[in-house]
Design goal:
The protein is mainly alpha-helical. The protein has helices at 3-13, 17-31, 34-50, 54-69, 80-96, 99-105, and strands at residues 74-75, 78-79. Strands 1-2 form a two-stranded antiparallel ribbon. A hairpin with a 2-residue loop joins strand 1 (74-75) and strand 2. Helix 2 runs antiparallel to helix 3, helix 3 (34-50) runs antiparallel to helix 4 (54-69) and helix 4 packs antiparallel against helix 5. The longest helix is centred in the middle third of the chain and has 17 residues, at 34-50. The protein is globular.
Length: 119
């Protein structure tokens, strides 16, 4: 797997959402990978959630879902359908004001499963 994707997942899973976002910025700019763009936006959603910004969560959720809509359910070993479901849950929680509780109770985690799709 691409080392920057592996590092992104490690940082994301440790709750370092901003740092995870930064890891994929350069490769995304170089290759314009739509999957990397969706992952960057996904990490950004949680930056806003951690900062307690419901409007930011909602805006990023809209961007994430838009980016994911053009992608397959799985790509680069990432379950993108699961990302969409998580995004919808946090978008709804931002609307009803429970996103901080959801983040505390259910820290999002990513995994790379190379059986799900190749480069």
């Amino acid at each position: 797997p691409p080392s920057e994707l592996v590092r992104f997942v490690e940082l994301f899973n440790s709750g370092d959402f901003f740092e995870a976002h930064e890891v994929l910025e350069r490769p995304w700019r170089e290759h314009r990978s739509p999957t990397y763009k969706a992952l960057i936006l996904f990490a950004s959603l949680f930056v806003h959630a951690r900062r307690g910004n419901p409007r930011g969560v909602q805006k990023q959720a809209t961007k994430v879902l838009g980016a994911l809509s053009a992608l397959p359910a799985q790509h680069l070993g990432i379950d993108l359908a699961a990302l969409a479901r998580t995004t919808r849950r946090f978008e709804q929680a931002a609307r009803d004001g429970s996103f901080r509780q959801l983040l505390a109770a259910e820290a999002p985690q990513l995994a790379i499963d190379w059986r799900m799709g190749s480069l």
